[in-house]
Design brief:
Radius of gyration: 21 Å
CATH class of the largest domain: Alpha Beta
CATH topology of the largest domain: Rossmann fold
Bound molecules: nicotinamide-adenine-dinucleotide
Distance between the termini: 21 Å
Order of helices and strands: EHEHEHEHEHEHEHEHEHEEEEHHEEH
Number of helices: 12
CATH superfamily of the largest domain: NAD(P)-binding Rossmann-like Domain
CATH architecture of the largest domain: 3-Layer(aba) Sandwich
Oligomer: single chain
Low-confidence stretches: none
Mean pLDDT: 97
Shape: globular
Amino acid sequence: MKIGIPKEIKTNENRVSLVPAGTEALVSAGHTVIVEAGAGVGSGFSDALYQAAGAQIAKDADAVWASADLIVKVKEPVEPEWKRIKPGQIIFTYFHFAASEQLTRAHIASGATCIAYETVELPSGELPLLTPMSEVAGRMAVQEGAKYLEKLYGGRGMLLSGVPGVPPGRVVILGGGVVGTNAAKIAAGMGAAVVILDVSLERLRYLSDVMPANVQLVFSDRHTLLKQIAGADLLIGAVLVHGAVAPKLIHREDLKVMHKGAVIVDVSIDQGGCVETMHPTTHENPTFIVEGIVHYGVANMPGGVPITSTLALTNATLPYVLQLANNGFQQALRKSPALLKGLNIINGKITHRKVAEAFGLEYHAAGSFVD
Ligand SMILES: NC(=O)c1ccc[n+]([C@@H]2O[C@H](COP(=O)([O-])OP(=O)(O)OC[C@H]3O[C@@H](n4cnc5c(N)ncnc54)[C@H](O)[C@@H]3O)[C@@H](O)[C@H]2O)c1
């Protein structure tokens, strides 16, 4: 199979979807790997390293898209890339379709086969291709939140860890999944007073076994949520309903109970965000202020730390890329229920129920396309 690796063109996105070690694995399995010139540079991988691993280097994105059967990316194709998509081409990447009707309609129109990293799901319910980036984003949420709490950046001017004689900050995390747990670990390690709210009692029970004593675990309903965010210094949005648009849990009027100069990092912004006043931002221009609260809504947080993120991502994605390349799309999805769950769009039809529901479009069972 011909596998294309375009350079990411989303603002300040320096990750790459395949590293030289992965290239070598694909080439030795008999596949052709075409890497756009400079695709790996932001993550520390030169063209020469890819060539040494057996890749062909294409001079531009058009050459990659035109020749590949399978395009492996990191972020969803952005508008300038849409015209390059060929009908029937397989695109394996993060899509987050439920957050954008325009993106969804563009891919329906393209005729591409879209397999979304974020909905590949193991029988246990785990999302193996979202997990590594959620680990990065969760840890980074505290790092970014701590920075924007500084006066210079519009924050209230507080050191999250406190110092002897001065209490630490209060960190409230909505959602105790992978993002929430990783955020809590870092915040707790800094000595902050941490609260995780979740609607899954099972998850709260698990977290109560593994979290340190400065992490409180609270069942989330509207009443407890309002009580907890009062006096929060850093609020982290980390909820997810698999494949669906994020539920709006924080409304504009709720911001009034928070400290002026507090910070919200809404990691769930890639699924639409759980804070009404949040909108997606970029690494170049990450924050804005509403009701005196600093809002941070970068939708590709791991893109800011590409050396770590590219390795973490490709460690998880490579086995699935190999399955697709070695077995072909039909057989790979027949053999792997996890990959089948990743199929979101094929032949102009939506095959993920939550994506169809998000825009009132017709849903088709994914299984009927791989029989
Ligand atoms: N912005 C970024 O760069 C970036 C990077 C990685 C992940 N993400 C996003 O972060 C979000 C969280 O990802 P994750 O891997 O932690 O998901 P996850 O499935 O591991 O965890 C989500 C948690 O949210 C909880 N939840 C659902 N509805 C809730 C509600 N109403 N109130 C409280 N808790 C609720 C669930 O019970 C679950 O424990 C996703 O939208 C993901 O796409 C964003």
